[in-house]
Amino acid sequence: MLHFAVAGVPHSTPAPGGTVEGLLRAKKLKINAMEIEWVQNVPKNPDRMAEIRETAEELGITLTVHAPYFVNLNSPDSAKLAASKRRILDTLSMAELCGATSVCVHAAFNLGQESNKVYDNVRHATADIMKHKSSLFPRVNLAYETMGKQTQFGTLEEALKISKEFGNYPCVDFAHLHARENGALNSAKEWETMIDLYQKVLGKKALKRMHIHYSGIEYSAKGERKHLPLQKSDAKWQDFLKVLKKRKIEGVVVCESPLLEKDTLLLQQYFQNL
Ligand SMILES: [Zn+2]
């Protein structure tokens, strides 16, 4: 099954909003997945997590989580590095409590260093995080995201390699890669090649539990500028959905359009009619 997730609480959620209200609203809209956006900070209240888990289970909603933006696993500053690892661990632990399947993380900035060096630093930090897997997040996947700027760690190859090394799977943000490559990677042929690589590194079964991000995107020579509504962008989203269908991809496609539920439903309805 491929689920289409709204990226956060739907715009049309009645006040005062919040994740639980957002889940109820998503269900009314016939959306069966949500990515919880802990991008500014991570809540720490286990009772609240239990409430989210119970609500999502009752409604049959699949959950993923987005970790805070303030992370750099390539930071030369030991306090910043420790804080980054702590934020990721906090996110994974709370995701475990609320029943989310996967947590996406913007792993690192390259800081002008060679990619091998950055990879090594990210790998060391990841090893420290993964030491806590069995005690803190046994059922949650740590998904490093493919990133939209060349200054960030996260080509498809990097995200796949580090995931493979630790038994995880990445968050493939196809919009970010389209922006990172300056407008390339926006055709059926290119998406199929990317899926072939994904399958080659992680195995065919991995196509049955993917964590995908998609939206329209504005970009310059330096890569990503901002996310856009699907119909106000150059995204060939219908062709993209046809490839997901053809390759029998399962898991979650998080729609990161600023229109939230409107574009999530656009994707979902088009996909269901294929
Ligand atoms: Zn992201």
What does this structure look like?
This protein is of the alpha/beta class and 274 residues long. The chain has a single domain, classed as TIM Barrel. The protein contains ten helices and ten strands. α2 (46-59) packs across α3 (78-98) and α3 crosses α4. Zinc ion is lined by residues 66, 104, 106, 145.
Helix/strand layout:
Layout: E1 2-7, H1 19-28, E2 33-37, H2 46-59, E3 62-66, H3 78-98, E4 102-105, H4 115-130, H5 133-136, E5 141-144, H6 156-166, E6 171-173, H7 174-180, H8 188-202, E7 210-214, E8 216-220, E9 223-228, H9 237-246, E10 251-255, H10 261-272
Helix pairs in contact: 1-2, 2-3, 3-4, 6-8
CATH class: Alpha Beta
CATH superfamily membership: Divalent-metal-dependent TIM barrel enzymes
Between the first and last Cα atoms, what is the distance in angstroms?
Answer: 14 Å
Strand count, sense and closure of the main sheet? 8 strands, parallel
Report strand %: 15-25%
Structural class: alpha/beta
- The quaternary state of the protein chains shown equals single chain
Task: Sum up the structure in keywords.
18% strand; 10 helices; 274 residues; eight-stranded parallel beta sheet; TIM Barrel; single chain; two-stranded antiparallel sheet; binds zinc ion; alpha/beta; 44% helix; 10 strands
Quick overview of this protein structure:
The chain is of the alpha/beta class and 274 residues long. The protein has helices at residues 19-28, 46-59, 78-98, 115-130, 133-136, 156-166, 174-180, 188-202, 237-246, 261-272, and strands at 2-7, 33-37, 62-66, 102-105, 141-144, 171-173, 210-214, 216-220, 223-228, 251-255.
